[in-house]
Amino acid sequence: MTGGRRSSTLPGFVPLAFTEPAIDTWPYRLGPQESERLFLPLLVSALPDWTHPLASAADVLRPALAGAPLPGALVEAVLAAGEPAQLGLLAANQRLLSDRPDLRDRLAATGCAPVARVILGLGHARETAWPLRARRRVLDCAGGAGWAGPEGVATALLAMSDPGLLRAAVGCPVAGVARGVLVAVGGGLTRAEQLRGLLTVHDHDGGPAALRLLDGASWLRPVVAEVVRDVLATGDAGALRKAAEVAEGTDGLVEELLDTGSAEREELLGLRDEVDWALVAAWTEAFDEVAAGALVARADCPGWARDELYRVHGVAVAERAARVDVGMFAVAPGGARAAKAVGVVARRVLDEGPGDSAVVAVLEAARPAVAVLEALRQPSGGAGPVWASLASLVAERLGEDVEAWRAVRARLPRFAGTVAELLHQAPPAGKQAGGWPGGSAMPESERSTTVTGARSAFLTLLDAAPAHDALLPHLDGRTVCDLFGHGRWRPEWIDLALSSPDPRHLRVLTNRGSLPAAAIDVLMRLDDPAVNARLFVRTAATAPQRERLLSGRPFNAPGPLPLDPEMVKELSRRAAGWRGRDAVDCADLELQRHILRHVRVRGIVPQLRMMLNLWERHGADQVTNLLDDEPQAIAHTRKVIRREVRAYLTKLLAGRDREAALAKLRARVTEGETVQWQIAALREQDHSGNELFKEAQLWHWADLMAEHARDPLPGVALNGLAKIPECPDELRAQAALHGYDQAPREVLDALAAGTTPRELLRGGSIDYDVVTWVHQATKTGQLTWDEVLESARPALRVLMLWGGERLRDPLTSLVRACLDPAPEAWVLALRMLPDFTGSVAELLRTAATATGVVLAHGTE
Q: Of 333, 381, 382, 389, nearest to 358 (Cα)?
């Protein structure tokens, strides 16, 4: 069935105009993501030979070659054809090269000018040059059209002033290039580069006569100048050839790596296909950490050579080695930060090595224990099998034995053995005298900003401990700060802090930066102004919690709860970090005005609630004062008090019966804060970005979830609620499951009138604003992606909108049935795609039928 231009069969459904791009403009209109989607049929193809489509539909394939992931057979066809323009497009295909980095060398080896322009960064202003290895290779292999002449690559290259680009051209056989580079930047070239440049001049740009012109140049290295004189004296370039070969091997590499003033050492190393590691090892002591790191980063660096370099430059090798293994724990790392090197290797072994054996090696072979235990804290949270093993070891060897813990803490700073050895060593007999080992007073701020060294290592052990009840009374103040401030969170700490005879323990706990909202909820019920002051600035405090903390309304104590004066003073200096409900019930008038200058209370009902609280707490005169002397916004451009709120309150305050006015305001606020009002408002929304979801509402989450269970809320409402920080995870999960189902009003009206999703797709040309509706329809089972391929039109737009993983499976079977049997079918489908008005399935079947492909039953 062929696709024809169809008019919409849905009353009132008029698709937006969409102008298809012409073929020759595609490369300029399609971004990488668009190309990837549009040419998904190419990627799922199993066509073994792309020679014919590549030759017959090259213009259509241009954007695919330049920006889409491609099947290996198509890439091989482009490389085999050797057409320079197509090769240049492949070189510009960043998605392809990221998937297949091996193509860089193969493309560079073509030596064609379009590829060179990409590699050298001579094209678009945003392009960056490739690594020196690729630049050198493409210039060494330069040949064909596009190199010479005023517009050629050689001319553009020699006009550059960047020595890094020019040095790559020492082996370029194009006339004048190597000689120009030697003259321009010869003094900054390595011995190997000077020799290669001179050999290129001899072989490709004038022979001995040209070489003689460079004899005696001041920039020639002495050893190079001697070789030149020998060649000119004997007329035999063999010495020059041999000298270049030696310099470009490991002998010259060592010289280059020892040049600590060079910024290109790692790239120069990348020019070598092979390295004589025995020769490198002989110079281990002489290399700095930059050179050592570059060497071990090579995939071909053998373990023994890596270990030799690790003995000298521990941290650099640990961080940069292509591979690490447990054998490195038997090697003593060199350098001033040897312990850090052990920690880096331990962390990498755990992250990269096989689970069980890596865990055993880290705990039983890596040393010293301090470095290993510090490494176990990264990443934070102590996930993985090593944490379970450590916890088991700590429970077995230390448990709740305070003296065993004391002995471990005393040994830890100077202990040179492994973690297992540290824990297995028996504590001294009897109770030890004195304070806690390594102890120090609690900081005046009652918090520790950083935890490092032995303290960090001991904190790792505390994190692995089964419980802290027995230990807490014995720990020094600084260690308590470390534990409560940086240790792995435990809900039981709240009871420990509350039952502790030391009141500082509770304050330390409330200073924890990552204190969870559930803990804040418990601690704020203590009705302690000093505790509340710390809780308010915790990141996890929710909007309702912050409002309550500033309200001065106690949970249990009689009468108002005073705000901590130091907190009020500190918050009055704060310009950022405010939230929409912070001012709604603030007990301090000046602080409330300060907050209003920096953040808007969004929504009519939340503003009325703020005015009601103000009236009830301070009287109607304070409401009048706020209206008459409205704070001037600093951090936003809107009026602090909404026009509707001002008008309503002005009318209320104009009456003589203030009690009746207050009752009327109270009733208005109460009605606006009911769950019934919220449900009705949610069901009226048509966009999840609407103002309702930005308002400072106090949402009735439990009731909303019950309502959703009774009568599901619209997807728009779910997605709007999911953007609110306090939204429960259960409701947020429902929003994610439901999807984002915004759709044009015409589409929603048609669906409400009984039109099926498939009829809707077939009835009119799809447009961008139905994308999310289609996604939602597939999630709920109203549509399948097979039906999208069969019914949505036009084909080009369908691929542009959805050509990704969703369409991969259904499209694969269609492509392989309709196009892969005949290269001609591919050519026709690609040529028809821009103007075809039917569906993707219709496009592929039309191309198949027209080229004689016999379709199997079920695909016709």
A: 389
If we measure between CA atoms, which residue out of 240, 272, 236 comes closest to residue 255?
272
Residues 159 and 128 sit within 8 Å (Cβ to Cβ): no
In which band, very low, low, confident or very high, does the pLDDT at 775 lie, cut at 50, 70 and 90? confident
Q: 492: exposed, middle or buried (C-beta count within 10 Å: 0-12, 13-18, 19+)?
A: exposed
For the chain, give the mean pLDDT.
Answer: 90
41 in Cβ contact with 813 (< 8 Å): no
* Integer CA distances (angstroms), 530 to 234, 489, 507, 594, in order: 92, 22, 8, 21
Give SS3 for 317.
Answer: helix
Cα separation, 599 vs 634, in Å, equals: 8
The answer to whether 254 and 279 have CB atoms below 8 angstroms apart is yes
Alpha-carbon gap, residue 227 to 43, rounded angstroms: 54
pLDDT tens for each residue of 574-594: 999 999 999 999 999 999 999
**Amino acid sitting at position 60:** V
Q: Give the Cα separation of 736 and 749 in Å (integer).
A: 24
841 vs 38: which has the higher pLDDT: 841
CB 446 within 8 A of CB 504: yes
Cα–Cα distances (Å) from 743 to 589, 658, 767, 776, 799, in that order, read 46, 48, 10, 10, 19
CB 840 within 8 A of CB 814: yes
The pLDDT confidence band at residue 29, using thresholds 50, 70 and 90, is low
Question: In this model, does residue 2 exceed pLDDT 60?
Answer: no
Residue with tokens 């004195």: 434
Report the amino acid identity of residue 192. A
Contact 568, 543 (CB under 8 A): no
Instruction: Give the pLDDT confidence score for residue 355 in this predicted structure.
Output: 73
Predicted local distance difference test score (pLDDT) of residue 857: 52
Closest CA to 252 of 290, 215, 280: 280
Place of tokens 């331990």: 346
Pure H helices in 159-249: 163-166, 177-185, 191-204, 207-214, 222-234, 238-247
SS (H, E, C) 436-460: CCCCCCCCCCCCCCCCCHHHHHHHH
User: Hey, what amino acid is at 827?
Assistant: V
Nearest to 533 by CA among 523, 543, 542: 523
pLDDT in tens, 45-94: 999 999 999 999 888 888 889 888 899 999 999 999 999 999 999 999 99
Distance CA 406, CA 432 (A): 8
User: Would you call the peptide bond into 529 cis, given omega within 30 degrees of 0 as the criterion?
Assistant: no
Cβ-contact 802, 37 below 8 angstroms: yes
Residue 10 CB-half CA count within 13 A: 26
Query: Using 50, 70 and 90 to split pLDDT, how confident is the model at 25?
Result: very low
Provide mean pLDDT across the span 621-628: 97
DSSP 57-100: SHHHHHHHHHHS---HHHHHHHHHH--HHHHHHHHH-HHHHHH-
pTM above 0.70, yes or no: yes
Joined together, the tokens standing for residue 21 give 């791009």
Q: Which of 42-56, 199-213, 749-763 has the lowest mean pLDDT?
A: 749-763
For residue 35, give the 3-state DSSP assignment: helix
* Amino acid, single-letter form, for residue 754: G
b/e per residue 410-445 (b: at least 16 CB within 10 A): bbbeebeebbbbbbeeebeeeeeeeebbbeeebeee
pLDDT tens for residues 260-295? 999 999 999 999 999 999 999 999 999 999 999 999
In the Cβ-directed half-sphere of 765, how many Cα atoms lie within 13 Å?
Answer: 20
Exposed, middle or buried: residue 781 (CB in 10 Å: 0-12, 13-18, 19+)?
A: exposed
Residue 26 has pLDDT above 50, yes or no: no
SS3 346: helix
Residues making up the chain, counted from first to last:
860
